[in-house]
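Blackboard transcription, Thursday session:
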Amino acid sequence: MNFDPFVLPFFLGLLVMGVILIWKYIVWMETIPVADRRVMFRNMFTVRTFKAIKEAVMEGLFHRRIFKINPLLGYMHASLATAWFLLIVMGSIESKFGQKDVFNMPWDPIFFNFFEPNKHGIEYEKFFVFTMDFLLMILMISVTFAVIKRFYSRLFGMKKTTKLMIADQFALYSLWAIFPARLLAESLNAAHYGNGGYMTQPIGNFFSSFMSMNQIINAEYTMWWVYSIVLAAFFVAMPFSRYMHILTEIFLIAFRNLGMKPADNLQGYTRFEINSCSRCGICIDKCQLSSAAGISNVQPAYFIQSIRYNLHFEDRAYNCLMCGRCNTYCPVKIDVTNMRNITRKMANEAVSFRYDYLPEIKKDELAEVTNVVYFAGCMSHLTPSIPLAMKAIFNEAGITYDFVDEDGSMCCGRPLKQSGLTDAAAELREKLSELIRSRNSMILVTSCPICYKTFKEDYNLKMHVVHHTELIKILIESKRLKPRKEDLSIVYHDPCELGRGCGEYDNARYVLKQVGNIVSIDQEKEKGLCCGGSISNLKVPVGKRELMAVDAVKQLSAGNPDVIVTACPLCKKTMAKHADGKMKDIAEVVAEALATEKQAETQEEEVLFLSVK
Amino acid sequence: MSPEFGFKISKSAQIDLDKADESLYRSICKAEPSLATCIFCGTCAATCTAGQFTAFSFRRLSVELRRGMIKEVKEEISKCMLCGKCTLVCPRNVNTRHILYHLKKHFDGNEL
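(Written on the board underneath:)
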C-alpha cells in the first residue's frame, strides 16, 4: 500500500463529505411521500431511466441549457465539469493499470505520480500522460475563465453575479486553488524525475533551470501537501455551500424523469430542488425586478438560499410578481414559483377571512339555456373595452351568452391563493363555483388569464373552461367569425398566467394571423415579459412596478409595431399608459377587424346597389 | 305598532383626535409608507369587488385607521377579497393590498 502523511487531509476530507452527503440524502429521501415513491419505482424499468441518464449527462456535464443562455458561460461550466469528471475517471483507470490492482486506495489516483513516478509497466503510458495533461490544461483554462467571470461578469453575458456567502466563498477559492496546485505538483514531479507530458515537462524544465534537485524535491513534497489540503477544504465545504448542487442535481434529474412532481411543502422533492440551486445567478439578470426596477436581492438564487439556511425568507417570498420567467431560464429547472407559494402559505397559517356577507345564489331564477357562460373577471371591469369587444364578438358569431358578472361579481380567489391565504381562497371558490354552476351551460369563457388558470386548476366546475383567445380561435376555425385581414404589424405579449401558467401560446397567434401580421420578438412564449402589474405581488411598491411596465413596453415596441396585443386585462391596464395607445387586447383587435369587414361589406353592397340603379 | 315607527337617537359620531389611538396607523405606515399619501378620494371604494355586496371599502378603512377606530377596522377587514382592483385605480399609488394584508395579519395575532 502506498502511503504518505499528506494523503490524510484529502482522505479525511473525502470521508467527512461522504458521511454528510449520505446522511443528508437519506434524511431527505425519507420525506418523499409513499405515493411518489411508488410512481418512481413503477417508472424505474421504463425508457424514462435512459432519459434521466441522458439528461444527467447533457446537463450535469455538458450544461446544455447554460450554453443556450450564453455560449461562453456554457463553455466555462461544461469544461470544468466534464474535464474534472474525466480527470477523476482517467486518473482512476491509470492508477489501477499502473498498480495492477483494481482495489487500490482512494488516494492512489490523486497522488499517483508521487507514488509511481516512472509508471512501470503501464501499457499506453503515453496515452495516459497526454490525456491527464490535456485535461489539466482544459481545467486551467476554465479556472482562468471562472476567475475572470468573478470580476468581469459582463464578458460572460451576466450583468450581475450572485453575491456569495462565506461558505460559498471558502469553497470557491479552494476550488480555484485545486488545479493550479495539482499543476505545480505534477510539474515539479516531472522536473524531479525528468519526465512529464507536453505541459508538465516544459514547466518542470523551467523549474529545474533555476532550482537545485534538493529544492525541487522539497518544493514538490510541499505542493503535494498543498494539493491535498485544498482538496480537503473543498470537500468539507461542499455540503454546506452552493457546490452541493453538483450531486443533488443528479438526484433531481432522476426524480423528475421518473415522474415525481414538486411537493406542497419544503420536504422531499422540493428539498432536493432547494439544494440543487447552484446560485449561478442567471435568474438575477432575467428578472425584470432586477433589470428594470433595481431590486436585486430577492431573485430565486437569494430566495432559495434563504430557505436553505432558514434565514428570514418571508420578505423575499413576497417581493416577487410570480411571472415565472426565472423558471424558464433556470438551468436546473427548479420550480421557484411553487416554492414561493409554499413559503407564502407558511407565513399565513393563522390568518382567516370571512365572506358570509355574500348574497345567496338564487337557483330558481335560472336563465335560459345558453351556449356559453361569460365571466369577465375583476380586471376586465377595469378595462371595459374588453367585455364590450367580447359582446360584439358573441353577437357577430350568433352565440347566446350569459354574462355572469356584468354588474360585477366576486373575485376568483387566485390573488388570495397566491398571497398564501389558501383557506380564504377556497371559501371564495366555493361560492363562485356555485354561482357559475347555477347557470345552464357547459362552457365557461373568461377574459382574464388569472381567473382562467384558477378555474382550470382549482375549481371543480365540470364545465369546459376556455380563455377568450381559444374561443375566438374556435369561432374563426368554424367560420362563424370572418375578421378582415389588414396590413397590420402586431407584436404579441404573452401574459404570464396564460403562457407560462397554462402553456397556451398558439391560440392567440393563430387568431392574430387572421387579422394582421405577427412580428416575432426575442422575448416571446416562455420568455414572455412581466408587465409589472401582477396581483401575485403584495410588496413591490407601485413606482418600481411602473418601471417594469415601462421597460416591458420598451422591449415590446422595439420593432415599432402598429399595435401591441395582449390577452390579459391586467397586462393591458398596466402597460397601456406607457404605450401611446398601441396596447390592445386580442378581443378588441378581432372586434375591430369584424367591424371593418362589415363596413366593407355594406359599402360593397351600396356600390352594387348604385351600379344596378 | 310596527318597529320602524318612531325616532331613535343615533350614537354620537364625534371623534376626539387628541385621544385617537394612532399606534396602529403608525406601525402600518412603517411597513408600507404609501398609506400616508392616501387622500380618501374614494376611487378604491368605487371599484371594490367586496364593496358590491357589503359596506366595505379601503377608503373607509383608511379613515378609520387614521382616526384610531381600531375596533371597526378589525371588524371590517376580513371582508376583503384581496383582488387588487383598488391598487390599480389608486391615483396616489397607495399599495392598498399590502396594507390590508398587514392589517389582517396583525389582527390575527401576528407581529407586524
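Lecturer's comment: Chain A has a mean pLDDT of 91.
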